[in-house]
Automatic annotation (TrEMBL):
GO biological process: regulation of DNA-templated transcription
UniProt domain HTH tetR-type: residue ranges: 8-68
Protein name in UniProt: HTH tetR-type domain-containing protein
Pfam families, sorted: TetR_N
GO molecular function annotations of the record: DNA binding
Keywords per UniProt: DNA-binding
Length: 207
């Protein structure tokens, strides 16, 4: 095998081992030693390819979010109805994690437990994913008649605020020691209901 091919194969092996570790654990709990054990790789080899744990972690989440964005782009129907866009979004999200279970934990650990010292780097990596999400809600809102006094821009801003609040609710549960897998399940189960409430409210307007 040529040296270039050997380097590429080793790089891939390190990434696959690291993704497995970061998928099962948060950044804080993930161990470089365990990554070595998973891939049967020496720590010296890992540090030959990656400066430190931060660089390796960021490369893993870069792959994660690029894979998600590409998946959406490949599976979105070209003639998607505005009214059905949110439903399609949720279906594709569930479908993605069924097909890529090795990225599910990594994704949610990143969304709900972003390492504080890497927030800016993670934000940059997530840019295309965040733009994709925003495009979805824009596409959906364009099919709706907004309340009097609520502009399209204000509706979009409000949605983002509520999205942060939704995720903060689950972050608190993580801090309280609730099992992470149960939190993720609840997050996904509640998301569609949450979107419905954000868009339509919880109180019935009296005539």
């Amino acid at each position: 095998m040529k040296r270039e091919d050997m380097n590429k194969a080793m790089h891939t092996k390190i990434i696959e081992s690291a993704i497995q570790e970061f998928n099962e654990k948060s950044y804080e709990k993930a161990s470089m030693n365990h990554i070595c054990q998973i891939g049967q790789i020496s720590k010296g080899i890992i540090y030959h390819y990656f400066k430190d744990k931060d660089e390796l972690y960021l490369e893993c989440i870069k792959i994660c979010f690029e894979t998600i964005v590409t998946y959406y782009q490949d599976h979105l129907p070209l003639d998607m109805n505005q009214e059905e866009s949110m439903k399609i979004y949720m279906q594709l999200r569930m479908q993605f994690f069924e097909e890529y279970p090795q990225l599910r934990g990594l994704f949610f650990h990143t969304i709900l437990r972003t390492p504080s010292h890497l927030k800016e780097e993670v934000k940059m990596i997530k840019t295309d994913f965040d733009v994709l999400n925003e495009d979805f809600i824009k596409h959906y809102l364009q099919s709706k008649k907004l309340r009097t006094g609520v502009s399209f821009e204000r509706a979009l801003e409000y949605y983002k605020m509520m999205q942060n609040t939704f995720n903060d609710y689950f972050r608190v549960q993580i801090e309280n020691g609730e099992p992470f897998d149960e939190i993720v399940e609840k997050h996904e189960e509640e998301m569609e209901n949450w979107i419905d409430i954000v868009l339509y409210g919880i109180a019935r307007e009296e005539n």
